[in-house]
Amino acid sequence: MIRRQCGLCTKRIAAGEVLAFIGEANARYYLEPPLHQPCAAYAVQVCPRLHAAGERIEVALTGAYDLWEDRITGATPEGNLWRAQFRLGDPAARLLAVLEFYLAYPVAPRRVTAPSWLAELARQAPVEPPNHAQGIA
Predict the structure, then answer these.
(1) Residue 85 C-alpha from the chain's centroid
(2) From CA 84, how far away is CA 70, in angstroms rounded?
(3) Neighbours of 94 (CB within 10 A)
(4) Helix spans in the chain (H)
(5) pLDDT of 32-59, one tens digit each?
(6) Which among 72, 68, 74, 75 has a CA at the least distance from the CA of 98?
(7) pTM value?
């Protein structure tokens, strides 16, 4: 996510290019990396989990996102983790906690359910696997 690479094809997503996050409806943040729009359309159609979820899956379209770090700050005696979120690169974060994962917060996204988004794309042009995603199993 730091390098703004597509989570499917791993190619760079150009600055200013509209990218897609796929997740549960009304998600505030995403754990999965952003995708090129053609890669996202391909994933929604071929991934059994995404396809079966239907209207519960949303595509968040945006040109930018803020990156945060989710860090483990401690644990209870029962083994439950204490967590905190820090802005990417916060110098205090490394001193206080262990990095668990990155969180991407889309900036002013346009949110559309996956089936509605695919229908929009189908009206514009047929969705085919992106050339750079050929051969991905």
Answers:
(1) 17
(2) 6
(3) 13
(4) 37-46, 48-53, 91-96, 114-124
(5) 999 999 999 999 999 999 888 888 999 9
(6) 72
(7) 0.82
